[in-house]
């Protein structure tokens, strides 16, 4: 199958490219920098810098849309918020507009989103039927999803990847927290009672492939391991794996002062339940945190 990926050079995208190539698929990656495609996705992967390159003759059957300016990297100034939106919402709108211009749109669009869709969830269990939250990330995710859904009117099957924090040895959240934890400087965040939802990169890839292959799957899917934990439990589990103490506390006020609105990414509570994936027959390889961390840290 010929697939088009956006964000194919990112943490999830490059691992996905390796998996899809190993399965014998042909890949095209839309990227701002074709050299990154050759480097991170492989020399056999075709790189596009514009969607205008997409023709019916390309025979693209599936699109996996993962592009997005990293959300945690810089303060959410008005300019930054626009960049976060444009790299997701505007790009997704362009994707769908391009599909509309084709005689033969793809069969399926798997489009990025995040559990940020639900906003602050407190103690409540958030399955796919939970309502949209009210903060900036929630609106961003909702608009990102809303940009993808119109592809459905073209006969394209649309599945939305509401992704929780992806744990990978190659980057992302785990790579950021490992250095202090390895030094014994692991710290609970705020009161540590906030729920943390996560997924092992391997399950993230398997879930994407599952949604690609199962033609009855459409709509929103939570990509989140069954065992959500409180921040304190995550902190202790990671420290245990590293045989280090984690007795420190980063006060909520310090995070809010340092990070502003972005502190919600660390202090917000999201107890997410992936209901629709298991209902469709998907089983997680890493449902529990301790074995997931053990596997990632052993590499
Ligand atoms: N990793 C997580 O824990 C997590 C959790 C929830 C949701 N997500 C979402 O899932 C998607 C993939 O995650 P990831 O961790 O693989 O992301 P990533 O490593 O940050 O990569 C995202 C990709 O998006 C492209 N991109 C970045 N800024 C862009 C911009 N301003 N305009 C256009 N394209 C841009 C880049 O491709 P080029 O440089 O090749 O253009 C990059 O490779 C993201 O949209 C992210 O928000 C991730």
Per-chain topology:
Blueprint: E1 2-6, H1 11-22, E2 26-30, H2 34-40, E3 46-48, E4 60-65, H3 78-101, E5 108-114, E6 125-126, H4 136-148, E7 157-163, E8 165-167, H5 172-182, E9 187-189, E10 195-196, E11 198-200, H6 201-213, E12 219-223, E13 229-230, H7 231-242, E14 248-250, H8 252-259, H9 264-267, E15 271-272, H10 276-279, H11 289-297
Helix pairs in contact: 3-4, 7-11
Bound molecules: NADP nicotinamide-adenine-dinucleotide phosphate (NAP).
The site of NADP nicotinamide-adenine-dinucleotide phosphate (NAP) has 26 residues, from helix 1, helix 3, strand 5, strand 8 and helix 5.
Description:
With 299 residues, the protein is α/β, with parallel strands linked by helices. The protein has a domain at 2-166 and 198-224: Rossmann fold (3-Layer(aba) Sandwich), CATH 3.40.50.720. It contains eleven helices and 15 strands. It has helices spanning 11-22, 34-40, 78-101, 136-148, 172-182, 201-213, 231-242, 252-259, 264-267, 276-279, 289-297; strands at residues 2-6, 26-30, 46-48, 60-65, 108-114, 125-126, 157-163, 165-167, 187-189, 195-196, 198-200, 219-223, 229-230, 248-250, 271-272. The strands form five sheets. The chain has a seven-stranded parallel beta sheet, sandwiched between helices. Strand 1 (2-6), helix 1 and strand 2 form a beta-alpha-beta unit. The longest helix is centred in the first third of the chain and has 24 residues, at 78-101. It is globular and about 60 Å long. It starts with a strand and ends with a helix. Bound molecules: NADP nicotinamide-adenine-dinucleotide phosphate. NADP nicotinamide-adenine-dinucleotide phosphate is lined by residues 7, 9-13, 31-33, 36, 66-71, 83, 87, 91, 112, 114, 163, 165-166, 172-173. Residues 250-296 form the DUF1731 domain. Pfam families: DUF1731, Epimerase. Residues 4-223 form the NAD-dependent epimerase/dehydratase domain.
